[in-house]
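Intended use. Records like the one below are meant for learning the mapping from a protein sequence to its folded structure. Do not use them to infer anything beyond what is encoded.
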Amino acid sequence: MKKLKFVCQNDRQKQFAIQVRKNVNHYFEENGISMKSNFGMVLKTVIMLSFYIIPFVFIMTIHTSIWVALLLVILMGIGAAGIGMNVMHDAVHGAFSKSDRWNKILGGTMYLLGGNVYNWKIQHNVFHHAYTNIDGVDEDIASKGPIRLSEHARLRKIQRYQYIYAFFFYGLMTISKLVMDFIQLFRYNKSGLTRKYQINPTMEYIRMVGIKIIYLFIFVGLPIIYTDFKWWQVVLGFFIMHLVVGGILSTIFQMAHVVEGAEQPMPDVDGVVACEWAVHELHTTSDFARDNLFLNWYVGGLNFQIEHHLFPNICHVHYRKISPIVEQTAKQFGFEYNLKPSFSNAFASHVMRLKDLGRTQAK
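Structure written out for the chain above:
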């Protein structure tokens, strides 16, 4: 991969980057509050973990019908998605706590989803956040099987209908990571990224294998051994849980970047993106449903992606307060602030973008 860099000669863009950070910092200083988590965030962490763990304990200890068990695995999926969007996401960004130790511990909740923390850090923190919506670098918009998320990717005939079938494939996100993590780690090792971040490739493979075996033993093996459900019922329940997790996570993530108004710029032949990085984030990211209090709570501020991309080290519980500051600063400097007023607006915009991407090849 060619190394990319943001080069900007526009003074207005540079001044925006300086001023928006100054304005947000002033908010925290003026109110005397920490940029990290608060009591509400700690309470939410307990609730999300409970939504995942307690239904599993019920399945393991109480004789239930298959229909009650189905409801419980769906609750587990909702809880697991909540853990990913709230606890793991903030912690891996170093936004949950001032303590690196606590961020590392809580970032480890990624293993409860069957994923790998190191892979996530590279894919999300490095590639996605540094090079948002840039085809060939941001893996979040890389083509995923029959789904085309980038206007610069090759267009296939089947993708004409991706706006209909995409959400099923979104549901396969986390369960596919059980296998795809190994392929992804191989690519990171081959490209030298693993050693660049001072990670021993062999030990990371061993750790990944060990953690995934433990994960599968607990959430598949133990129910087969200690409950009355047949093995195929357990496997089906495990698959349904992951469909719920993957469906929620993928949909929420894509509703902030693959929507109308979110640009997908490309660097020039020298790997230069002619834009100030902070302005690039405005151009490639969208907020949605800022006034939906339940959504704000459950999705971990992922509907405030503009604020999250500009300030990934700030805990998401503060995004609703700082979003008007960011919006006002953007408009002050003449930049568009991409906001979808409701969940339904953002969802419809994502569907329309999928439809367009399935029918139009970039020139």
